Amino acid sequence: MDVHREVHETAAAIDAMETRGAAAIADAAARALRSQARTSDADTPEAFRAELRAAARTLFETRPTAVSLPNALRYVLHGADGQTVAALRESVETTVAEFCARLEHAQADLGEVGANRLRDGDVVMTHCHSTDALACVEAAVDQGKELRAIVKETRPRNQGHITAEALSELGVPVTLIVDSAARHYLNDVDHVLVGADSIAADGSVINKIGTSGLAVNARDRGTPIMVAAQTLKLHPATLTGHTVDIETRDVTEVIDEATRASIGAPDVVNPAFDVTPPRYVDAIVTERGQFPPESIVTLMRELFGEGTTRPWEEP
Ligand code: RI2
Predict the structure, then answer these.
(1) Which residue(s) pair with 123 in the sheet?
(2) What CATH code would you report for 5-109?
(3) Backbone region of residue 305 per phi and psi (left: phi > 0; alpha: psi in -120 to 50; beta: other values)
(4) pLDDT (tens digit, 9 = 90+) per residue, 31-88?
(5) Does 20 contact ligand 1 (Cβ within 6 A)?
(6) Residues 6 or more apart in contact with residue 25 via CB below 8 angstroms
């Protein structure tokens, strides 16, 4: 069975984090399935569907934590409908276009909601790089609010640098700090603003490693914590008791081999994400409005029913 080259390339880019961030991963995965559908030479609907499932499995296996990936694959596979290969191909085309349009719309709508929480003159502290979080700042700037940002560099990959650049382009003055300086500056901050890779049914937020420590410190300081997350980041499997896998990445992201050897070759671990319990989060901002984390389960049930399916697995 042929999985299209573009599917492999997209999977490799997600795996290597050239394509990263929950929304970007979902968009790329949906487009890769469309390429699979466009180029498929399957001669029966069954063969076409099997190819699509194989492509989805290739994508699914790349990164375990960002739930937007399986949510995107599920959306496209459920949308694939028809009695002929031509009809199936057409339905994938329509579904992917609809999915990508919704994605773009959702981020802008979420930004408007998040911006309403920000006041003129506020200082936000960010962690990692989240396009959903940035959408809130962008909408606030569009409303004429002047904001400043304290940006954590976010070891080990320094994705805070991407946030610093994006905020500067929006005209928001940025102060970059090392991660361990966060508590020191929290008194000067009006909001901690982060994104999410997954949200569990109990309102726990799974986001870049370091988020939970930041949230605990922010709570201690009385600084509100706002999480910007499209509904695509709701993790439906957690409705039925599953937990969210935390991705562990290569240790060379933390330290190169030579330096490691020179300090006595310690064990090194590199978890990419952590879990922030709902009691440390003030609001989850979505395109459907803002929610206290404890009530996100209501929205999750409305959008996903009682649980979830894995349509990419063999029937
Ligand atoms: P958007 C990132 O993870 C960060 O943890 C960020 O908060 C989250 O994705 C969501 O990003 P990674 O993919 O979808 O860099 O809001 O490991 O852009």
Answers:
(1) 148
(2) 1.20.120.420
(3) left
(4) 999 999 999 999 999 999 999 999 999 999 998 888 999 999 999 999 999 999 999 9
(5) yes
(6) 14, 19, 63, 66, 68, 69, 72
- From 104, 130, 152, 286, mutation site for ligand 1 pocket: most ligand atoms within 8 A of C-beta: 130
C-alpha to C-alpha distance for 309 and 101, rounded to whole angstroms: 23
pLDDT at 1 over 70: no
The string of pLDDT tens digits covering residues 169-180 is 999 999 999 999
What are the structural domain ranges in the chain? 5-109, 110-304
Output the CA 54–ligand 1 centroid distance in Å. Answer: 26
Which tokens is 27 given?
């968009």
Q: Residue 304's closest CA among 249, 233, 223, 243?
A: 233
**How is domain 110-304 classified at the CATH fold level?**
Rossmann fold (3.40.50)
Instruction: Report DSSP state, residue 306.
Output: T
What angle in degrees, to the nearest 10, is found between the helix axes of 85-117 and 68-79? 140
Strand partners, 285: 228, 290
Q: Is 282 helix (H, G, I), strand (E, B) or coil?
A: coil
78: DSSP letter: H
Alpha carbon distances (Å) from 61 to 42, 131, 161, 264: 23, 23, 28, 34
Among 15, 129, 154, 235, name the best residue to mutate to test ligand 1's pocket (greatest count of ligand atoms within 8 A of Cβ). 129
Which element (helix H / strand E) includes 150?
strand 148-152
Clarify whether 100 is annotated catalytic: no
Q: What per-residue confidence (pLDDT) applies to 248?
A: 96
CA distance 23 to 229: 9
What the block records as the tokens of 303 is 């959008």
Question: Do the beta carbons of residue 313 and residue 142 sit within 8 Å?
Answer: no
Q: Using CA atoms, how far apart are residues 205 and 211, in angstroms rounded to an integer?
A: 9
